[in-house]
């Protein structure tokens, strides 16, 4: 089989200078140049989904225009090329999160499916009546509902670790909830509603002293900081392509080899089998055992190119720039009278959730939209978080590598416009 990958060259990746050049980066994202309602687009809804650089769009188009074929079985040129590119994308993901082996990278539709896969395979096998699954009060619904389904089926109990008024996990209470019946711990690396960065390595260490596996929802961490699953020590790590500048409908589950090998398949069908008779089916090796059916080849290629793009900029550079931008945004927005930030953890990623006196978050979002500013309003698929703070919803501005201080200034001006409308 050919080993040609036809991935973009280093020159195509628009490698930035050592000094972080946000304007150079912005030019890589065609959608950022458009107008919305007669105003320049200010896109601050990156926690919901990120925009895509031209290089990712080109890679997806090139696949469908010049390389489209099904993979792994064909002996013709296009099938071999598509297979090679798909397999290479898996290797790119492996290196990006520092997984020991490429076969520990399972391609799924997103973080949601990754967590469901673990719940319905590892969870079903290891959780029994009266056992416990431990989560936190800051979870996205995708890291609550799969465990609720499992607990309902197994007559097990879902335990919830509390958070404080800053939106931080109360570690002393978390540790108290780890008991002899705890079979799985599931946590977010970064809260989508609050921006809180959790001490994952510390939690994993606590769990592993009791031989409890840890599932990490990394959907909000992967676009913003360097991920090293070996350093974290986690047993499973899930993230989505569309939040890290890749295509929608694509995601990753990392799992330790020994755990994946012992887990039953998630779905049955093509490519997850080695042989089939009516008497017995022999399952394929990792990771294909968990990848039934025709995969999203273009999605995998697009994710691989998105990761190469991030690598070209440098995850440390991205994290430093976003940290500075978040500090600026926090100062700007919190200085506005009548605005209260929700989630003020000492260790935060680029999420700014807030409420305003006498103004519903949906009204905030509607008025900002008239100014060309895109934010998210509502409970952000994290209703228990809202309940913790005694509010129905927040307005959420979420930052990415291409946002600027000028856009933060536009957000602050837009919030003041909201106040004028409701005064």
Structure description:
This protein folds into two domains: 40-44 and 314-422, Alpha-Beta Complex (Aspartate Aminotransferase, domain 1); 77-311, Type I PLP-dependent aspartate aminotransferase-like (Major domain) (Aspartate Aminotransferase, domain 2, 3-Layer(aba) Sandwich), CATH 3.40.640.10. It has 14 helices and 17 strands. Helix 7 links the parallel strand 7 (182-188) and strand 8 (214-217). The model is unreliable at 1-17 (pLDDT under 50). Helix 4 packs parallel to helix 5 (145-154) and helix 11 runs parallel beside helix 14 (405-422). It is globular, with a radius of gyration of 22 Å. The termini are far apart. It has helices at residues 22-26, 54-67, 77-97, 111-126, 145-154, 171-176, 200-208, 229-232, 257-262, 297-313, 315-334, 361-370, 383-389, 405-422; strands at 35-36, 39-40, 42-43, 105-108, 132-136, 157-161, 182-188, 214-217, 236-240, 251-255, 273-276, 281-283, 339-342, 351-356, 373-374, 376-378, 394-398. By secondary structure, it is an alpha/beta fold. Strands 4-10-9-8-7-5-6 form a seven-stranded mixed sheet, with helices on both faces. A four-stranded antiparallel sheet has the order 13-14-17-16, with helices on one face.
């Amino acid at each position: 089989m050919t080993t040609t990958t036809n991935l973009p060259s280093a020159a195509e990746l628009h490698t930035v200078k050592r000094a972080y050049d946000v304007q150079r980066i912005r030019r890589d994202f065609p959608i950022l140049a458009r107008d919305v309602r007669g105003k320049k687009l200010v896109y601050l809804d990156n926690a919901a989904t990120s925009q895509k650089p031209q290089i990712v769009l080109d890679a997806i188009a090139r696949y469908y225009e010049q390389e489209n074929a099904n993979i792994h079985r064909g002996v013709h040129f296009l099938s071999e090329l598509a297979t090679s590119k798909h397999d290479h994308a898996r290797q790119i993901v492996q290196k990006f999160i520092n997984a020991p082996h490429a076969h520990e990278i399972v391609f799924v539709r997103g973080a949601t499916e990754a967590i469901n896969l673990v719940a319905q395979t590892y969870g079903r096998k290891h959780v029994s009546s009266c056992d416990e699954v431990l989560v936190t009060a800051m979870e996205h619904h995708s890291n609550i509902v799969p465990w609720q389904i499992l607990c309902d089926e197994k007559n097990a109990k879902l335990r919830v670790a509390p958070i404080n008024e800053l939106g931080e996990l109360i570690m002393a209470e978390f540790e108290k909830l780890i008991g002899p019946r705890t079979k799985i711990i599931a946590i977010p690396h970064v809260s989508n509603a609050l921006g809180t960065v959790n001490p994952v390595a510390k939690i994993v260490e606590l769990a592993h002293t009791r031989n409890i596996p840890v599932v990490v929802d990394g959907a909000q961490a992967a676009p913003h900081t360097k991920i090293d699953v070996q350093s974290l020590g986690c047993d499973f790590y899930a993230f989505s392509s569309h939040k890290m500048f890749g295509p929608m409908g694509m995601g990753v589950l990392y799992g330790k080899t020994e755990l994946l090998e012992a887990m039953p398949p998630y779905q049955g069908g093509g490519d997850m089998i080695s042989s089939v008779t009516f008497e017995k089916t022999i399952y394929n090796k990792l990771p294909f055992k968990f990848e039934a059916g025709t995969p999203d080849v273009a999605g995998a290629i697009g994710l691989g190119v998105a990761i190469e793009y991030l690598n070209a900029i440098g995850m440390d550079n991205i994290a430093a720039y976003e940290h500075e931008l978040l500090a600026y945004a926090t100062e700007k927005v919190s200085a506005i009278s009548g605005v209260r930030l929700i989630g003020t953890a000492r260790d935060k990623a680029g999420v700014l959730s807030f409420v305003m006196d006498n103004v519903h978050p949906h009204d905030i979002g509607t008025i900002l939209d008239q100014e060309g500013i895109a934010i998210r309003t509502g409970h952000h698929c994290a209703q228990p978080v809202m309940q913790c703070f005694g509010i129905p919803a927040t307005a959420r501005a979420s930052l990415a590598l291409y946002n600027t201080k000028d856009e933060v200034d536009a957000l602050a001006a837009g919030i003041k416009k909201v106040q004028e409308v409701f005064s």
